[in-house]
Design brief:
Blueprint (H helix, E strand, L loop, with lengths): L9 H14 L17 E2 L5 E9 L7 E12 L10 E7 L2 E9 L4 E6 L3 E6 L18 E2 L9 E2 L16 E8 L2 E2 L5 E3 L1 E8 L2 E9 L14 E5 L6 E9 L5 H7 L6 E2 L6 E7 L5 E8 L5 E6 L4 E7 L3 E2 L1 H4 L8 E2 L2 E4 L8 E3 L17 E7 L5 E7 L2 E9 L5 E8 L6 E9 L2 E3 L4 E4 L4 E5 L7 E5 L2 E7 L3 E7 L1
Length: 477
């Protein structure tokens, strides 16, 4: 039921507010939603269900493959069965919301704070210039009276596109301050998005919301339900968590806006520095490489190892150049890490389960630097096991990831490549496609003769493959 609060006096408003508090516990007082069933939601439609896991089909639009179980909230509308939005029983005012979501290819959904302010969720993989209708955007308000082509206004595009591929889990954190009202229900302060972080990147910062966005559930009010859009496309959610918005959230966010030192690819397409691997070690001879399609990566020159890549802006050199500096640079976009500790990419093994090299001692390894093409894209070269190795890393069309081709000028027996190291899990999706590290990225092999081997090492997973003179694969993230 939609209530027009403007028709009620102060006494009636207090009664209604009390009723809301009794009938639905405030979400900010809960730790999150237990997705063992749909009991936390109001009259869920038949396209909503709970599952144990879900993957996407990269070749089919709006298709999710569901695994039985609990813990994952799934919406799968079809041509025969239209989807509907999902509302929580509990309501919220100020809140910090965190959750993971996964999009089907070509899919579209949204998170409505208090049922009224939409944060857009969309398959925006590889998009260069996102708008207020793409992933991570604050959707526009709407007024037909403004005239054709002008109805949408006050939408906010994300600062950069930090989106991942369909079928990969994405993490979003939203700090929200609700609109404030006096005793007569007159609005005295607008709602505000304090910040939105997508996959570790701040994409919205201190945005005032002057009114409800398009498709709102009703009038602005002190409390409202969390609403998940379900009438557009296939989407999944998990780890839905709530916490209270700190009283000093706005002040704290402004204080965090220091003057960073950013490096743009147009002036410096490649940079050498130290790089810290999250939760791992420091690479002391790293080169970070940008691209016009905002797909960037870092490479360990000491081991010939491609250890991270990211979508979005290039480099934050603040720790490198601010004051005395420590020589370390940081990616500015959404980072995907392929290892916690780089070791040599290549190793001679008696069998694929053998112990991997910890360093290049005894292999004849000698870096020969890199050659740069007309677009400043390097091809790395080094000597190892008596052969010359070339390692060419190129950005895929559409900015969807990287292609890597490792070539040995002299074929050598029993040389393997370590494609992924120390992953939590690796799923073989068939046809040369592997889903890695909690659905963080894909590895795709093309025309490979020897099946890659998933091996267990100290409770983690490695993906290794025999190199018969040349190895080609792609990383989709």
């Amino acid at each position: 039921m939609k209530l027009n609060y403007l028709k009620f006096g102060t006494t009636a408003f207090v009664w209604l507010l009390g009723t809301a508090l009794v009938s639905g516990q405030q979400l900010a007082d809960q730790s999150g939603i237990d997705l063992k069933d749909l009991s936390a939601f109001k009259k869920p439609g038949q396209t909503w269900s709970v599952a144990g896991g879900v993957t996407a089909n990269l070749n089919e639009v709006n298709v999710l493959n569901v695994i039985k179980g609990t813990g994952v909230l799934v919406n799968q509308p079809t041509k025969k069965v239209a989807g509907s939005d999902l509302f929580t029983l509990g309501e919220h005012g100020d809140i910090v919301l965190e959750l993971d979501y996964l999009m089907a290819k070509g899919s579209n959904s949204g998170i409505y704070l208090q049922g009224n302010y939409e944060i857009q969720l969309e398959d925006s993989w590889g998009m260069l210039n996102p708008t207020a209708a793409n992933n991570g955007a604050i959707y526009a308000r709407w007024d037909d009276a403004r005239g054709e082509g002008k109805q949408g206004y006050e939408g906010h595009a994300p600062r950069q596109n930090a989106s991942k591929a369909p079928g990969l889990w994405q993490h979003i954190r939203i700090a929200f301050q609700a609109a404030k009202f006096d005793g007569s229900m007159k609005k005295i302060a607008n709602a505000r998005i304090i910040s939105i972080e997508l996959n570790g990147v701040v994409i919205q910062d201190n945005i005032e919301l002057f009114g409800s966005t398009r498709g709102s559930a009703g009038f602005e009010k002190p409390l409202g339900p969390l609403r998940l859009q379900g009438d557009h496309g296939a989407v999944a959610f998990k780890e839905i968590k709530f916490s209270k918005l700190p009283a000093d959230a706005v002040t704290r966010q402004r204080e965090n806006n220091t003057d960073p030192i950013y490096i743009d690819r147009t002036t410096t397409p490649n940079i050498r520095s130290f790089v810290d691997i999250p939760g791992g070690s420091k690479v002391v001879h790293a080169i970070s490489v940008s691209s016009p399609t905002q797909v960037n990566y870092s490479y360990d020159l000491d081991n010939g190892y491609l250890f991270q890549a990211w979508h979005g802006d290039f480099i934050d050199a603040t720790p490198m150049w601010d004051g005395r500096g420590n020589g370390t640079s940081r990616p500015r976009g959404s980072v995907t890490t392929f290892t916690k500790k780089p070791v040599p990419t290549l190793s001679k093994l008696a069998d694929p389960k053998g112990a991997w090299l910890t360093d290049t001692t005894g292999t004849g390894f000698k870096t020969k630097g890199y050659m740069v093409d007309a677009d400043d894209r390097p091809t790395f070269t080094y000597n190892m096991y008596g052969a010359k190795v070339t390692d060419a890393i190129k950005v895929l069309d559409g900015g969807q990831g990287l292609n890597r081709e490792i070539t040995l000028n002299n074929p050598i027996d029993n040389v393997y490549a370590l494609v992924v190291s120390g992953a939590s899990d690796i799923q073989d999706l068939s046809k040369g496609i592997y889903l890695v590290n909690g659905q963080s990225f894909y590895i795709k092999f093309d025309d490979i003769k020897d099946k890659p081997v998933i091996r267990d090492v100290d409770g983690k997973k490695d993906l290794v493959v025999l190199v018969r003179g040349k190895l080609n694969y792609s990383i989709l993230f």
